[in-house]
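I'm curious: can you give me some protein's one-letter sequence along with its backbone structure tokens because I've never seen that pairing?
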Amino acid sequence: MLILASASQSRKKLLENCQIEFIQISSNFDETSIKEKNIFNLALELSFQKANSLSENIQKTLLPEELNYGPLEILGCDSIFEFKGEAYGKPADKEEAFIRWKKMSGEFGFLHTGHTLIIGNFDSTSNIFKIIKIIKKTVSSKVYFSKLEDLEIKSYVDSLEPLYCAGGFALEGIGGKYIEKIEGCFSNVMGLSLPWLRKNLL
């Protein structure tokens, strides 16, 4: 059984749409504790820490009865948008979101999503999760933005959608119409590379 170690609704929807059976349990890992300057590596490290934190505390979590034994796969993901060498997480406020979009208009950037899959067995009798294998990879997609007028940017920022998304945009939401094209994995831009997951799930 797959456990998504994230509260992300976009990742949840991707898995549901693909009819992949899973349960969702947030790891509640403190992301600010990681100090890594390389954006590519940072996404990977954060994904690992999210999955690892849940694997270490899985015995404290009330799992459905059918999951109290046998194989489990814990999936941790973290997305960071890179624009001209700078990491763009979620904008702090509307002003920051507007400034970012002014810069990104007509340009391109890279959406890096770190993926970590921790495969193991949980034995409810001993209350121990034994790790068998850890698979990690950062998947990157190149995102091209349309050239936007200030009024369009303001309208999008006023929707508040950018404030809840890495990079300040949601491909699957209102922001989708402002994406000119994508090079690389499409679902990766929404926070989870489904082709990567398919290859690595048990």
